[in-house]
Amino acid sequence: MPASLHPLFQPKSVALIGASEKPDSVGRKLFYNLITQPFGGTLYPVNPKRRSVLGIRTYASIGELPERIDLAIVATPAATVPDVLEACGQAGVRSAIVVARGFRESGQPEGLAREAALQQIVRRYNIRLLGPNSIGLVRPHVGLNASFIRPVAQPGHVAFLSQSGSLGDAILDWSAQRNIGFSAFVSPGSMLDLDWGDLITYFGDDPQTKAILLYIETLPNVSRFLSAAREVSYTKPIIAIKGGRTEGGSRVTATHTGAMTSQDAIFDAAFRRSGILRVETIAELFSMAAVLANQPRPRDRRLAIVSNAGGPAILATDALLAGGGKLATFSDTTRQALDRAQVYHPENPLNLFRDASPTHYAQAVDTVLNDPQVDGLLAILTPQESARPEAIAAALQRTLAHVKKPVLTCWMGGAYVEKANEQLSQAGIPTFNYPETAVRAFNYLWRYAYNLRGIYETPRPATQLLTTPAADPAPPRELELFHRARQVGDTLLNAARDTAQTVLPEVEAKQLLAAYGIPVVEAFRARTEDDAVQQAERLGFPVVLKVDSTQIVHKAEAGGVLLSVPDADSVRLAYRRIERTVSERVRPEAFEGVLVQKMYYYRGLEIILGSSVDDGFGPVLLFGNGGRVAEVYDDKALALPPLNTTLARRLMEQTRIFRALRDRFTPEVVEQLEQVGVLFSQLVVDHPRIREVDVNPLAVSSRGVMVLDAHIELHPWSVPDDALPRPVIRPYPTQYEQAVTLTDGTALLIRPIRPEDEPQMVKFHQTLSDQTIYLRFFFRFAYEQRVSHDRMARLCFADYDRELTLVAEYPAANRIVGAGQLFKTRQEDEAEFALLLSDDFQRRGLGSTLLRTLVAIGKREGFHTLRADIMTENTGMQQLARKVGFQVRFDADEGVMKATLQF
């Protein structure tokens, strides 16, 4: 059971093992920092070779200390660390920092062996370990400097977590000159135990921390990182800078998808998916922390620029448009108001000229910000003779007191504007030295808001409009479709296993796509000329002939594709030509016959849709400009599965070709493409045996979406199923769906909640009485508060690793009638449960069914304890808990009934 991190970050007792007086030694620096910044607890230096260090009595070993230690800092050589940590474990030490190098990062066998030994000790004694290869941590608010960093960090509200210790040292030095304060500085080192997920979760709960800044080089546990970041980013900004972004990390493959996937682009996709803002410089890391802490989020990217000079406004405009922002267009009402205020040429950028007074500035800014077509504002001032920087800053402060749109300022110059900049900063109005820098901050701000909205925007259901009505006159529900599709996929993959194939032939590849409701042009095999003619005549001319080969990925490049074949004689000629060309360009045995398919005419665009596997992130999805020039145009975007319709749209919006799709085709066609993305994502999630998928081209036209070619590669069959790469974001857990029948014969479906359920959950709350709400939540609050989008989004967009909500669906009435939840606590091997039932479904056996289901899931998820607090007057819930096997007792301290079940 992972222990709390409070002993690490707020220790009452600290032991420094390896304390020293040797100049410039790590033990000396650590000890000096600990004694010069008292943390309010007891410090014990440990050194068997000295009786005292810097005049303070030492102890020969950790076992001789008079009390149990919260934090042990191990400053001894790497070879000694396993024995030292073993002694710490035996002494009951709760947490430790290991500063030595010489473990996994060394790449040497002895380093790997030492790290394995540390891992065993940490697990055996339940010690929370920071490091190895860590320079320590600093907690200014509690006066703890458990590091060998020289600068003293000032108290503040930013937690800075840096994988580079030397960079952290430099930044703390730099920040001291700029009066930047910290709630914490942490060097996670090699992250043998504590990783990014642990640290983000801790500082997400830390009341002193308002923003979390990350310097990242590697992600050792991607799933935990994304899970923690996604939860915390909803309430606190997380800003990251990634080191090593130009390093080539993609695997070279034969498919377009593999060749177009880079490690850095995957990091971008991961950050977007978890609500993290990625910046490019250290200066931006800290400036955006200030912007996000003090400015509201913009609705869109439309910026207004108000300036007393034309040149800086032009530079700001260029930077805005180059970064993807938009120049706001003023409404007629705004232009008329500016005319009345005698503003010359009331257009954006708005030039007030050199003689602009504080009143002019304030009026102009107020008028522009009231325009609904403006999402944010940049005010620029240059130090011209008549300019009054401080007075204009004061006027802006008064004007912006109740503004709910982001406002950035750029008071250009040096000493002349220094006091004005201080005024603005103290008022929480971000100020920048250069207009381009300010505009980059606005572009970051709207991108951050855009990404967060994407995570919690209610998606449309992935409807079955893609199924062929003739083939399926009564389209199944979405979940039923996926069950059917999964069965088809399993059958196809099992057939490939029987023949040891690792490349799925195109016929089978298209069958798999079609099973998921993705439209395909069917292909039929022909092993002889006569077979080809027969298939063509059955389909109707003209047709397409393609080489049938598991050895050739790009058929056209091998001369294996002929289009618009008009008649039977031409089919025979085409067959022979493909056979000859493939034999010459590749090899004769690569020709296994041809595929015949109906010629699909369209006037539209070609898309590539693919998936490949990354060593760290698992399956990665790709969308971009397709056809033969897919790699030439380099117009692509990546995403992590699974997707919903909102996330599929966000993926497409990252590309340039999306603008052409949106402009040329109807919204229905674009929505169909969205749904293809969702269905394709589900296919990838359902079948981890798939190594790569290349759908290219995916034709998009006014007729809709159609797959013309598809290639699927599988992982070698020597890789066991339980070792296959899985999505780093846990997909919808289909294994927890079950049909149940209540005692009165009512048939229900119990299943995990989905983002698409938000409208139904709103209706569910209409069926709950005030008393039901009071007994569940311990207080009464209005229906409008309960069903706000923010609250419903947090419920429906559940991270299945952290919180599992089951809904009881009543298909006959198309409504949700109950919900049960398991919340993973910070102890991780225990969970809290909660139930909520529609008033008309109480006392019908639904409560006991849901609770028993939660208990079964809790066991399967590896929890050891389930808990709940129940109001004393909620006797029905108490009886239900006892019926299912919970121990229920009264807690006098908290005044509630405690229900506990241990496995």
TrEMBL record:
User: Could you cite one Gene Ontology molecular function of this protein?
Assistant: ATP binding
Where in the numbering of this chain does the ATP-grasp domain appear?
510-725
Q: Which domain of life is it from?
A: Bacteria
Has UniProt tagged this entry with the keyword Nucleotide-binding? yes
Fetch the SUPFAM superfamilies from UniProt.
Answer: Acyl-CoA N-acyltransferases (Nat) (SSF55729), Glutathione synthetase ATP-binding domain-like (SSF56059), NAD(P)-binding Rossmann-fold domains (SSF51735), Succinyl-CoA synthetase domains (SSF52210)
* Keyword entries, A-Z: ATP-binding, Ligase, Nucleotide-binding, Transferase
- Kindly give the InterPro entries that the UniProt entry links to this protein: Acyl-CoA_Synth/Transferase (IPR051538), Acyl_CoA_acyltransferase (IPR016181), ATP-grasp (IPR011761), ATP_grasp_subdomain_1 (IPR013815), CoA-bd (IPR003781), GNAT_dom (IPR000182), Ligase_CoA_dom (IPR043938), NAD(P)-bd_dom_sf (IPR036291)
Q: Where is the N-acetyltransferase domain?
A: 748-902
The keyword Transferase belongs to this UniProt entry's keyword annotation: yes
Which family does the record assign?
Answer: In the N-terminal section; belongs to the acetate CoA ligase alpha subunit family.
This chain's protein is named Acetyltransferase
